[in-house]
Design goal:
Chain A has 12 helices and 4 strands, in the order H-H-H-H-H-H-H-E-E-H-H-E-E-H-H-H. Chain A is mainly alpha-helical. In chain A, strand 3 and strand 4 form a beta hairpin. The longest helix of chain A is centred in the middle third of the chain and has 20 residues. The chains are: A mainly alpha, B alpha/beta.
Chain lengths: 279, 582
């Protein structure tokens, strides 16, 4: 299997990951934009100077947040995605693959704004589990804006006015609050095992917040992380097709007509949508 | 005020297989046809370079947007229905060619048993075999009568295949040989044969070779590139309306296609349809298109809703079990594709290659091909192993008990990425008195018209048939030598997701106007110049996808419409009372 890691890797990502992990630097959310930039640069220089490839050999990326305004939210998101898809002996984790930037762009897209979905009311208040949980469990009834209705059995569908982008912001807030309540510490400063503990609480739907069903939020976070890891690199994740290399997935290929009957597993150097479109 | 246009012979609502076939046949016969499509225009070159899993499979680029309208859904009659809000939970087609543009391409004729299901069940097991409330009945047409239309559709679509060894009679061969078999498909077929079953290579709307159909349209050989389901074909190798019937209709010079045209009412006077009212979705301008014959050939949901909004026919009332519009709603739900997944430690398959209609299949547990005397359900299901070609987001299979995220998930999902094969049972779904469509009292579309409401409950029949199928699939996966076998679990209840695209009924065909809305030419009993073509005509859901049956019935309907125009009126088949209360 070919490994292009050294030649094409975006070294800024490495430094950013280390930066985000060294949580003390961002504690309290006190850092201004310019100071943040300065620290990032110094971290970058300190850690990666000897690895810096000549600019001409590098793919240039222009990552910046276009949805998450606050650095704290983005740092938390990054740390959470890395626990869902961690760096290990198989290769890069979510941060290095660009997943947080993938999610940022998705939240700013039609998908994040639910632009293709039916978002007309009335919205039954079934996501407000803190307020209506007892009613829901006991009588299967919830209160809508005007009437009391019996919920369809097994309703699992999206019935909130919140867009996915807002859902992300609310969910991340809820994760941060859970971290403070449980460990008296910011999520990004927790040990990985503690971070996992919080993610598991969300996964099991144990955390109750107004407006957010924690299990639904976890499911959205997990699915979006997996998408960011494995979608075509054009969306900001799966940097340099490294996740496809880990999986031995070749990406879009014109034809397998001559290979479909082959008995042996065939490993190909992956090719992206950009290659496929002949750009 | 709607702008009134010049009258034409036939106006067709919808541009999928149903609308495409009707438009092609009638324009070939010299009639002036206007085809109206709510979505945008598209050509086959729009699909070049679109192999993008996120955009198409996960973000549903080719699926109808729900911004303007959707359906509402509930389980029981006493519940309030809630809207299906997310596009991912309601996959219906849109744009020129409709849902047929992103179909996978699996091709199965339905069974002779299907068309006479009530008579044949009673004949073999007695009337007591049919549970109270299951509204099965004969279709008013036999397999033998429909067979020539199946054959015609297969020739037009260029189907690649070999006959099912347990299949019904065929008047001719498939026009193209079967698709190439991959090692995984060979393993499935050999293993099934070893345990006494009758596997074969499933028939496909993907071309096994370059093919020119009887209308002169050419389709190219399939490249096994794996981007079929949810995609338009990059190479013109998948049979769809843009490759076949739409260009055929265009060539005649008699068919005008108008896209971005959302039909909102059938206009009628004195028991006859006079035309349709539609809105240009770009400008908001309203038009009235008069016609001698109106053909509704949209998706099941739209066909039903248009009749209800236009106040044509009697909406089914579950309390009295009277009324036919909205009756016999069925489809493929979360109980339909359950089976068993095998994880192989020492085998790796090139499962990133494939095609939508590439697979092995068997019919040993389908329809009434096995004895149901001691079973607690009727009908059956098809068994399949399908090699669609898995892309990277979809392909994250891990054995049960593995965490779904974190270190162990990453490790195992990478290891099993191409070591996982699934065999499933596509169970038939019967109609019940309590499953139906009507109009929602609360939720509205962008024009203020009520949304269509679905009431649908899984039954003991659905659960029993699925459990049976899961066991049969497991036996095959065991024979295939998997190291770990995970069985699917039967859901407790319908989950309100309509992701499978196959929802039928509501304007069902039959011979008794008490229980059917259209006759066997899909002509509405109570409005003889209105034909309602498509999945809405199917009275129950058989064991496989409906496309070929919709294609066959569309050819039958086209023949009927031509006859109706020539004979200047009248019912093409006379009603018969079946005396069945169901």
């Amino acid at each position: 299997m070919t490994n292009n890691k050294d030649s094409n890797q975006d070294t800024q990502d490495l430094s950013r990951r280390k930066f985000l992990k060294s949580g003390g630097l961002v504690a309290g959310g006190l850092l201004g934009g310019s100071l943040f930039g300065g620290l990032l640069t110094s971290q970058f220089q300190k850690d990666s100077k000897k690895d810096v490839a000549p600019q001409a050999d590098k793919q240039v990326t222009f990552d910046a947040r276009t949805f998450f305004s606050r650095n704290e939210d983005f740092a938390l998101l990054s740390a959470a995605t890395e626990r869902i898809y961690p760096e290990n002996k198989n290769g890069m984790g979510a941060i290095e693959l660009g997943v947080p930037y993938f999610i940022d762009r998705q939240c700013a897209s039609n998908w994040g704004r639910n632009a293709n979905d039916y978002m007309v009311g009335p919205f039954p208040s079934i996501t407000k589990t803190d307020v209506y949980e007892e009613e829901k469990r006991q009588t299967n009834e919830v209160i809508t804006s005007s009437t009391v209705v019996k919920l369809p059995a097994g309703t699992a569908n999206y019935q909130t006015k919140m867009t996915r982008g807002t859902f992300f912001l609310e969910g991340l807030n809820a994760m941060e609050k859970t971290s403070q309540d449980k460990f008296n510490e910011r999520f990004i400063n927790l040990e990985p095992e503690q971070q996992d503990e919080i993610l598991q609480m969300f996964e099991k739907g144990e955390v109750k917040f107004s407006g957010v069903d924690s299990a639904d939020f976890f499911s959205l976070l997990r699915q979006t992380t997996i998408e960011g890891v494995y979608a075509d690199p054009v969306y900001g994740g799966n940097r340099n097709m490294e996740a496809w290399r880990m999986k031995e997935y070749p990406g879009p290929i014109m034809s397998f007509l001559d290979k479909i009957e082959e008995e042996e597993f065939i490993v190909m150097e992956p090719s992206s949508l950009r290659n496929y479109q002949g750009l | 005020m709607a702008k009134k246009l010049d009258k034409v012979d036939v106006v067709v609502v919808g541009s999928g297989w149903a609308g495409g076939i009707v438009s092609a046949e009638l324009s070939k016969a010299g009639y002036q046809v206007v085809m109206l499509e709510r979505g945008k225009d598209q050509t086959r070159s729009d699909f070049i370079g679109v192999k993008d899993e996120l955009r198409y499979t996960n973000r549903h680029e080719m699926i109808e947007k729900l911004t303007g309208d959707t359906i509402t859904s509930r389980v029981s009659i006493g519940d309030a229905a809630l809207p299906v809000r997310l596009q991912k939970d309601m996959n219906t087609g849109t744009d020129l060619g409709g849902g047929s543009m992103h179909w996978a391409g699996s091709v199965y004729r339905w069974r002779s048993y299907d068309f006479e299901i009530r008579s044949k069940t009673i004949e073999r097991y007695g009337e007591g075999k049919i549970p109270e409330g299951m509204q099965i009945r004969d279709w008013g047409i036999t397999y033998d009568e429909l067979e020539p239309y199946y054959a015609k559709w297969e020739q037009t679509a260029g189907i690649s295949g070999e006959p099912d060894p347990l299949g019904d009679n065929r008047s001719n061969e498939y026009p193209n040989p079967p698709m190439l078999a991959s090692p995984a498909i060979k393993l499935f077929k050999e293993s099934a044969k070893e345990i006494g079953l009758h596997p074969y290579q499933m028939a496909s709307g993907n071309m096994s070779q370059t093919y020119t159909n009887p209308d002169g349209e050419t389709l190219n050989q399939c490249m096994f590139c794996s981007f079929c389901t949810m995609y338009g074909c990059d190479f013109g190798s998948k049979s769809d309306p843009l490759a076949t019937v739409i260009p055929t209709a265009r060539k005649t010079g008699n068919c005008e296609i108008r896209t971005n045209s959302l039909v909102r009412r059938v206009i009628h006077k004195d028991g006859k349809a006079t035309g349709v009212l539609y809105t240009d979705t770009r400008t908001g301008q309203e038009f009235e298109q008069p016609a001698d014959v109106v053909v509704l050939a949209a998706f099941t949901f739209s066909n039903n809703r248009l009749l209800m909004l236009s106040d044509i026919g009697e909406i089914y009332n579950p309390e009295t079990r009277k009324g036919t519009i909205g009756r016999n709603f069925t489809g493929q739900f979360n109980s339909t594709f359950l089976g068993a997944t095998g994880f192989f430690n020492d085998k790796k398959f090139n499962y990133y290659m494939g095609a939508g209609g590439l697979g092995g299949a068997l019919s040993d547990y389908d329809a009434d091909l096995f004895d149901h005397t001691d079973l607690d359900f009727i009908h059956g299901g098809g068994i399949e192993l399908r090699q669609y070609g898995d892309a990277a987001i979809k392909n994250n299979f891990v054995p049960k008990g593995t965490p779904t995220w974190g270190e162990e998930f990453k490790e195992k999902s990478l290891f099993y990425a191409f070591r996982t094969l699934t065999v499933w049972y596509s169970a038939a779904v019967m109609p019940w008195w309590h499953n139906f469509m009507d109009l929602d009292p609360t939720y509205k579309d962008e024009f203020g018209d009520p949304l269509l409401r679905i009431t649908n409950k899984l039954t003991e029949q659905d659960k029993n048939i699925a459990k049976f199928g899961i066991e049969k699939c497991t036996e095959i996966v065991e024979a295939m030598g998997a190291d770990i076998i995970d069985q699917d679990e039967m859901p407790d209840q319908f989950d309100h997701t309509y992701g499978g695209m196959h929802y039928i009924g509501g304007v069902a065909m039959g011979e008794d106007p008490e229980t059917s809305a259209v006759n066997n030419y899909l002509q509405l009993w109570e409005m003889e110049n209105l034909f309602v073509v498509g999945g809405s005509a199917l009275p129950h859901f058989s064991s496989h996808h409906p496309t070929p049956t919709i294609g066959a019935l569309s050819y039958r309907a086209a023949e009927g419409i031509e006859k109706y125009l020539k004979e200047k009126g009248g019912l093409l088949t006379q009603p018969k009372s079946s005396g069945v209360k169901a």
